[in-house]
Amino acid sequence: MRRFAFVQLDVFTDRPLEGNSLAVVTDGRGLSDAEMQAITREMNLSETTFILPREPEVERERGVRVRIFTIQEELPFAGHPTLGTAMALRNMSSDGARPGRVALHLNVGTIPVEFRPEADGRVFGEMRQRDPEFGSIHAPDDLARVTGLAVDDLDPDLPIQTVSTGVPFAIVPVRRLEALRGLRIDINKVLDYVAERDAKFLYFVTRETGDPASRLRARMIFSNGEDPATGSAAGCAAAWMVRYGVARPDETAVIEQGIEIKRPSRIFVRASLNGGAVTDVRVGGYTVEVLRGEIYF
């Protein structure tokens, strides 16, 4: 019998049973790619991660090796798995100390996560993502055709543009919160659309929010349903916000997501502007552990 310990965390929330759930296999050595994929399907969450410990000197230089899987495929990078796995590693510290920084070696490269304990006992984590790459601008008529939105539902003052900090998302600005709430897309049409373009997913946002402290409300619908919080997309949105004046450089803004599926999430984002180029994209939030267990087969 082979046994593998795991923890489950809710990410981008400070309340259990909200945010985006993540399973973390704390030592995945000995698992094949097919077994990692099968375990991820068994968990049936947005993502499951696998920590693959290495020699301490290698981890100090390159970070802790981590692989990220959805129920369908391995991803080079994803936001809530990065933040949640880093928190799990912080909690696993063997000497009782809680490091202020954890670096993960993902397929996209090394991603550092900084932690800041707060007076109320919560711990805020923030990752720095890759500098953004701005891709194509999409025609509103094309997006209306594949999403079921009317052209008038799209915000005319902001571009629909592909942005990537590791995974490419087309940021789709919607004029009204009512239209975002009522979104009913045909996922097959969306998949056909992105297959021919430089985006992998669509990230719908609106400047009308439920919480006046939030800057954007967001939804991300994909083939496995709707994502409660999408940290990789939030990084892309942060870069897009700074480039087009929705947020000021280095200003911390909140993206609310997951409201429509009763998994409310709060994603804290910021980005810098250096000589006209958006850099230093940071995505953060809180994480709570809700479950520990063991997989055996």
Q: Which residues sit in consecutive blocks of at least 5 with pLDDT less than 50?
A: none
Ends distance:
6 Å
Number of domains: 2
Q: Structural class of the helices, strands and pairings?
A: alpha+beta
CATH fold node name of the largest domain: Diaminopimelate Epimerase, Chain A, domain 1
The average pLDDT is 96
Number of strands: 19
Strand fraction band? 35-45%
**What general outline do the C-alpha atoms trace?**
globular
Radius of gyration: 19 Å
Helix count?
A: 7
* Order of helix and strand elements from N to C terminus: EEHEHEEHEEEEHEEHHEEEEHEEEE
Q: How do the helices and strands line up, and which of them pair or pack?
A:
Layout: E1 3-11, E2 20-25, H1 33-43, E3 47-52, H2 56-62, E4 64-69, E5 74-75, H3 79-91, E6 101-106, E7 109-117, E8 123-128, E9 133-137, H4 140-147, E10 161-164, E11 168-174, H5 177-181, H6 187-195, E12 201-206, E13 216-219, E14 221-222, E15 225-226, H7 231-243, E16 253-257, E17 265-274, E18 277-285, E19 287-296
Tell me what the structure shows:
The chain has 297 residues and is α+β, with helices and mostly antiparallel strands. It has two domains: 3-126 and 286-296, Diaminopimelate Epimerase, Chain A, domain 1; 133-283, Diaminopimelate Epimerase, Chain A, domain 1. The chain is built from seven helices and 19 strands. The chain has helices at 33-43, 56-62, 79-91, 140-147, 177-181, 187-195, 231-243, and strands spanning 3-11, 20-25, 47-52, 64-69, 74-75, 101-106, 109-117, 123-128, 133-137, 161-164, 168-174, 201-206, 216-219, 221-222, 225-226, 253-257, 265-274, 277-285, 287-296. The chain has a 17-stranded mixed β-sheet that branches. The chain has a two-stranded antiparallel sheet with strand order 14-15. Strand 6 and strand 7 (109-117) form a beta hairpin. The N and C termini lie close together (6 Å).
